[in-house]
Specification:
A hairpin with a 2-residue loop joins strand 1 and strand 2. The protein has 278 residues and is mainly alpha-helical. The protein has two domains: 54 residues, Orthogonal Bundle (Arc Repressor Mutant, subunit A), CATH 1.10.10.60; 148 residues, no CATH class. The protein is built from 14 helices and two strands. 32% of the residues are buried. The chain is elongated and about 65 Å long. The protein has a two-stranded antiparallel sheet. Helix 4 packs antiparallel against helix 11 and helix 7 packs across helix 11. It binds a DNA duplex (21 and 21 nucleotides) through helix 3 and helix 6.
DNA sequence: AATGTAGTCAACCGCAGGCAT
DNA sequence: CATGCCTGCGGTTGACTACAT
């Protein structure tokens, strides 16, 4: 890959280099980000002499050079999460990616395309998805009942469909998904605010559903309560979800590690790009 | 061993939203 | 308020690799 100078046929268009990045270019970009932080991508070429567009620089950084990226194959557990979140959000890859620390939207998108788009999903996936949707519905109705008992029913919840309505098409793609996690990060008591005002973004509510589902006990507590308190370490739900989805102990262990934050510190340098949920 | 095919991944493109001027 | 620029997102493309024949 690296050093292959002839990707994409053309090497320069309008003065911009295109095609695969060289290690030299990578170095320059990393150095630039280290000095100036993320953002201002259009000025990178001026600052570093790179003949790359800001867009290209950002993409390279986000998808490849970011230090917090997780390398390697998507695990079955991550796959389950992708499936579940895709059931909720459709092709909102960046939103889904925020729930998978170290994974990029591009990666998830590619993974989905290769594994689910062409062929039929595996039966396990199908079952997981079906069960997920069913449970979510059940949980919603339970929540609704609880809230009714408490005398408050958020309207947004009432309007939720089976969970697959938001397919990522432009019609309601109003927020590009950025609000979900950011809100969670800066506003630890989303649920409280939601209950009080009920004016949070649709995705916030969906996210709560997802989290409530994926880790019914502790994740919900984390999300609703002490979310993202100082990039903390929150090992969460060793086996709850895996009992539902996985194939036994093995999954239990990995689910546990998946939700474990020990290795997923919100690196200040990369915080902008990697604000994970918890 | 050579060739064909499918799978994977990095990168590009166009579009839309947000923000500064 | 209008306009232009920057950034981020989703879709698509093309090169490389692995596997099958």
């Amino acid at each position: 890959m690296e050093g292959a100078p002839l990707g994409w046929g053309r090497q320069e268009v309008d003065g911009w280099r295109k095609g695969p990045w060289t290690s030299q270019e990578d170095k320059l970009l990393v150095e630039n980000v280290r000095q100036h932080g993320e953002g201002r991508w259009n000025s990178v070429s001026k600052l570093t002499g790179l003949k790359r567009s800001g867009k290209s620089c950002r993409l390279r950084w986000v998808n490849y050079l970011r230090p917090d990226l997780k390398r390697g194959k998507i695990t079955p557990q991550e796959e389950s999460i992708i499936v579940q979140l895709h059931a909720l959000w459709g092709n909102r890859w960046s939103t889904i990616a925020r729930s998978l620390p170290g994974r990029t939207d591009n990666e998830i998108k590619n993974y989905w395309r290769t594994h689910f788009k062409k062929g039929k999903p595996s039966k396990n996936i199908e079952r997981a998805r079906a069960r997920f949707l069913k449970q979510r519905q059940e949980m919603q109705s339970q929540q609704r009942q609880l809230l009714q008992l408490a005398g408050q029913v958020p309207k947004d919840h009432e309007n939720q469909d089976g969970g697959s309505a938001r397919t990522g098409t432009t019609a309601d793609d109003d927020d590009r998904g950025s609000a979900v996690v950011d809100d969670a990060c800066v506003a630890p008591t989303v649920a409280a605010a939601e209950a009080a005002g009920g004016h949070h973004h649709h995705e916030d509510l969906i996210m709560h559903d997802a989290m409530d589902f994926m880790c019914p006990m502790s994740c919900a507590l984390l999300l609703h309560g002490a979310v993202h308190q100082g990039g903390g370490t929150g090992s969460c739900c060793g086996s709850t979800a895996s009992d539902e989805y996985g194939s036994g102990e093995e999954d239990g262990a990995t689910w546990g590690s998946l939700w474990n934050l020990d290795g997923v510190v919100v690196d200040d340098a990369a915080a902008g790009a990697c604000c994970t949920l918890w």
